[in-house]
Amino acid sequence: MTRDATPTLTEVLGKLADAGEGEHVTVAQILDEFGDRSLAPILLVPAMLTASPISGIPGVPTVTGIIVALIVVQMMMGRDTLWVPQFIARRGVSRSKLDKAVGFLRKPVGWIDGLLKPRMTWIAQRPWNYAALVTCLAIALVTPLMEMLPFVISIAAVAIGFFAAGILVRDGLVMLLGYAVVGIAAGAALALM
What is the model's pTM? Predict the structure, then answer.
């Protein structure tokens, strides 16, 4: 862990890679790797997965969207621990696909890690971070529709990733980038409709 025990994005990605055993990794195994008291890093996980080629598997973006919605609602409620229903906890992906997604994400995540630092911290704290959380929830709710639009869901996942990273590190500038990416995703969705 880095200073103040705030994990880097690379460390979050490493925990994702270490999750579970065997040929199939479930949502429950991923959450066990993170523990239930770290909601901002856990919000990064479905965003990272959906930004990777794994989002091309039918149904994966919808499941990650449901997980994002559950995490965001609980963050907005001020909960310290994460609750996920069993029908979601049992869902999963093959180890090979997860490893491929983690490999795909290593370079961009490492690059973003180098940019993150506390700045414009007021944007990343309550009550201002609620706007980002509401935006993440809105994206999560339309994820099943966006699953039909190539690449749009991955762009939207990058926005969620920026919001989660900004909240985690208290980097308001990165959160502003998240809003810009939401605009790009919306523009791409409109162009493809």
Answer: 0.81
